[in-house]
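Troubleshooting log. The previous structure file for this entry was overwritten by mistake, so regenerating from the original sequence record. Sequence copied from the archived sheet and checked twice against the printout by T.R.
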Amino acid sequence: MHPYFRQQQAITRRHFFGQSAVGIGSAALASMLGSNSMSSAIERISAPDVLPHIAPKAKRVIYLFQNGAPTHVDLFDYKPVLRQWHGRQIPDEVVGGKRFSTMTGNQVARPVLAEMQPFYQRGESGAWVSDLMPHTAAIADDLCFIKSMYTEAVNHAPAITFFLTGSEMAGRPSMGSWLTYGLGSSAKNLPDFVVMTSRDKEASCGQIFYDFYWSSGFLPSKLQGVKFRGSGDPVLYLRNPDGVTREMRGAMLEDLERLNAINHQKYGDPEITTRIAQYEMAFKMQMSVPELTDFSDEPEHILSMYGPDVHTQGSYAYNCLMARRLAERGVKFVQCMHAGWDQHNNLTYHLQIQCKDTDAPSAALVKDLKQRGMLDDTLVIWGGEFGRTPFLQGVFDDYRNWGRDHHPYGFTLWMAGGGVKPGLSYGSTDEFGFNAVENRVHVHDFQATVLHLLGIDHEKLTYKHQGRRYRLTDVHGHVVHDVIA
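Regenerated output below.
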């Protein structure tokens, strides 16, 4: 048989499609090989070309996600009627047949529960903030409270996934991945999307941090969040094995890069370029991460502002300071997730502990960014996946075990900096803090607004997957222009 026909018979389906994809892949590879930065070359072939769509007000985001759902009616949404109705059954017309978690779904007695601590109006803006949050109260004039948030999910994982990815089902790209895809890379020696987690010291609830909260979904895996660990080295393999110098490691990676480049030329698989970029970033992080985590250059008054836990790796205070240090080094999206707000039966004592652990660090981050001139172009977000019920979960006479159930129908989050109006309380719930009634803000509206602040039209930032163009806001969402400065 002629060698030409023998070669044709030897070509498998996998080989055919692999080679067919090389057209664009080869051009990109040639571009990369001619550049000192593999990552920037990959970015050029993966990101949209016309961005920003509008003039951006923010360059980066720090999302202080409060897993478990903070109780809005105890912290930021003051409702005097709760004190008047304390212990009495909440009116049926307020509840209106709404669904709740299985913990109170069949609970017949639903007595109204007053706030745990007194509320006062704070600053020139007059924002209502509970005594449970004195440090946040002190910066009320820097904050934009959205008091009319509402969502669709009533359980934690779907609700968190909805906020972070735009879908209740796992598998979609997270917000940090979308932003990195759209805006490209800005950090030189660190990932553009970093995640840190912490939890309440008492481990009061079983909240789990699932990897899909920071997944890149169907976007290139180069865009997924890099999770910093809460103990030991923030990322694995920062140190070379004994006997391996940095020069040796660099030479090994160069050889590995060449092998991967050959593989890419052969198959055209974009994940091979991701692998090359990840090896390069890992090499850079061997130098950048030790410097990042060394707080010896931080003034004592800054450290004390974040609170006594700031030196405890894996604590919320430590992560908040790390978030500021990451932001000033060019990281585009920092996602700090703190669990422990799920007070179903420990509201009377644990809420106070949780607020004490998180209040000062959150406020310190805003103040720290402001005094460094970074708050104007850094968007800080604080909030959970839903709120808590204005009525009691449990038995009214059992004060020690009072709690509040999940509540998606109206709750509060706040934002600071990054182009939002400071000193604004936007929207409202009804007199019981039950339903968002004025200037309602859906999760997709919130996401559209965040993208807008970063210069992105949420309807235009899309990615084609399985024949359909997807976006963070799915097919919904409106920018809330009233909160934009």
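The chain has one domain: 55-234+293-483. Archived copy saved in two places this time.
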